[in-house]
Structures are given as structure tokens and as C-alpha cells.
Specification:
Layout (H helix, E strand, L loop, with lengths): L2 E5 L1 H18 L6 E6 L2 H17 L5 E4 L25 E9 L3 H13 L4 E9 L11 E5 L7 E5 L1 H4 L3 E5 L1
Parallel strand pairs: 2-3, 2-4, 4-5, 5-6
Antiparallel strand pairs: 1-8, 7-8
Helix pairs in contact: 1-2
Family: Belongs to the purine/pyrimidine phosphoribosyltransferase family. PyrR subfamily.
EC number: 2.4.2.9
GO molecular function: RNA binding; uracil phosphoribosyltransferase activity
């Protein structure tokens, strides 16, 4: 299986820095914003964004990791609802994931957020948008668009889990 690196650690950092500034600009600051990262790598990326926002705005934005297993529509097994204190009521939630593909994980995450309360708004930030949507979901902030075939796999690696940062495509 041929694997090609399409984003290295520096490219990822640049993309996250750009997304940080786009979030701040679009929301006219970071008041009433919380970051919610979809486990596993989306949660790590949300942490990176929280650190980047803190460097720029000198404000700590709350950051949460969300397990969407209970809300998935492609699993037969019943998963329990995670016990999590996540104050989303009247907040602007920036939902963060590593790869946006068919849109089903994001749909599950939106259902989960609604379970915890009525957010004022939900915005979506992804490191990679690879297309092939099955649901009408689009990202507000995108690190990189990577057109891909259904036969290809895109893997995001993050230092906290994988020991390095990078995005790879395999056939």
C-alpha cells in the first residue's frame, strides 16, 4: 500500500494558526466560545486550537473531548451516554474533527451537543475535508481540502497520540 505525506507538522501548525485567526475574526473575539473536539484526534486538535487562541487573545477558551459512540447511526451495539459536564447552553460551540468525510460523525456530534443543551450556534473546524458527503454538512473552517477517491484512506497523526504530526493518504 503506497502512502504519501500530504501535510507535515509545519503545514498542520500553519493551518491551525490560520483557523485560529478565522475563528477569532468571524466571532469578533472569543467571548462565549467553547471548543469541543471529537475523540480521539479531533480532541487533540481542539486542544491545539485552544492553546493557539490563548496565545493570540490571552484568554483560555474551555475545551472538551466528546465521545460520539452513543449517537452513531452505524453501530448495532448500544453505547452508554458519556457522563460529561459540557456547558453548551447559549455558547458558540466550535466542533473540531480531524477529517470530514461523509458527515456522519459530525451529525452524531451535533446530536450529542444537543443532548447537553441548546447551543447558540455550532461551527465546524476540520483539519482535512476530503469530500464524499452523504449528509448536507459543511465545515466553516478547513485546514486543507484534499480531494480523494473512495478507495483512498486519509490518516491524521498527532504528536500526543502518534509521536508525530502529519497527514497521510494511502491507496
Amino acid at each position: 500500500m503506497e502512502t504519501k505525506e500530504i501535510m507535515d507538522a509545519i503545514s498542520i501548525k500553519r493551518s491551525l494558526t490560520r483557523i485560529t485567526h478565522e475563528i477569532i475574526e468571524r466571532n469578533k473575539g472569543v467571548e462565549n466560545i467553547i471548543l469541543v473536539g471529537i475523540k480521539t484526534r479531533g480532541a487533540v486538535l481542539a486542544g491545539y486550537l485552544a492553546d493557539s487562541i490563548a496565545r493570540v487573545e490571552h484568554v483560555d477558551v474551555p475545551c472538551y473531548a466528546l465521545d460520539v459512540s452513543h449517537w452513531r447511526d452505524d453501530r448495532e451495539e448500544a453505547y452508554p451516554i458519556p457522563e460529561l459536564e459540557m456547558p453548551v447552553k447559549n455558547k458558540k460551540v466550535i466542533l473540531v474533527d480531524d477529517v470530514l468525510f461523509k458527515g456522519r460523525t459530525v451529525r452524531a456530534a451535533m446530536d450529542a451537543i444537543m443532548h447537553y443543551g441548546r447551543a447558540k450556534e455550532i461551527q465546524l473546524a476540520v483539519l482535512v475535508d476530503r469530500g464524499h458527503r452523504e449528509l448536507p454538512i459543511r465545515a466553516d473552517y478547513i485546514g486543507k481540502n484534499i480531494p480523494s477517491s473512495l478507495q483512498e484512506q486519509i490518516r491524521v497523526k498527532v504528536n500526543d497520540i502518534d509521536g508525530c504530526d502529519g497527514v497521510y493518504i494511502s491507496k
